[in-house]
Each structure stands twice: as structure tokens, then as C-alpha cells.
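As practice, study what follows.
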Amino acid sequence: MKGNKGTFTSPGHPNEYPINTKCIWIIEVPVGSTEKANCEYDFVEIYDGPSEKSRRLRKLCGNEIPAAIRSTSNTMTVSFFSDRSRQEKGFAARFLQNEQSRL
């Protein structure tokens, strides 16, 4: 997804997401900007860059609502994993461009 802001949801949100699912969103804001975006069953991982090989910023699960998560560049990767054992209501997330000042 490209742009200075946006939203995305897990499959089926606000209803249950399918079991055994993996989704990946790559978020890119304009260059010169950054983004502000024990888990046994289903979880979301947020990476600081264009792939899951980038440095992981956070792993989220349950009802945790995190504070803003900031990248060091203009690209983040968000991965959602669900296992085969249970289904929940899923999530909705948003991203925002954060202007960086330069000297």
C-alpha cells in the first residue's frame, strides 16, 4: 500500500478471520517520511523495512493495543498469522506518514 495514510484489516474483519491464514502488507509512505505501525495462536508482526527479513519492531497478539510504532524509513511490512486451532474477530490498523525534518 502506498500513500501518506491508510487503513487495512485482517480478512473478514469485523467478523472472524479464516483459520490457517497468512497475510502480508507492505506499507510505503513518501520518501523522507517514517510510519508511526508470548503469542501462542495468532499474531501480527511488524518489520522495519520492505520484507519479513527486515528488523522486527513488534509482535502483537490478544487484545493489546500498542502505542504508535515508528519505522526508521518509509517502508514497513506487516504480517498476520493464524493457526488451525481457533478464530477470533481480527483487527483493523491504520498507518500515518510522519514528516522528518532534515538539516
Summary: The first strand starts at residue 5 and ends at 9. The CA atoms of residues 52 and 77 lie 7 Å apart.
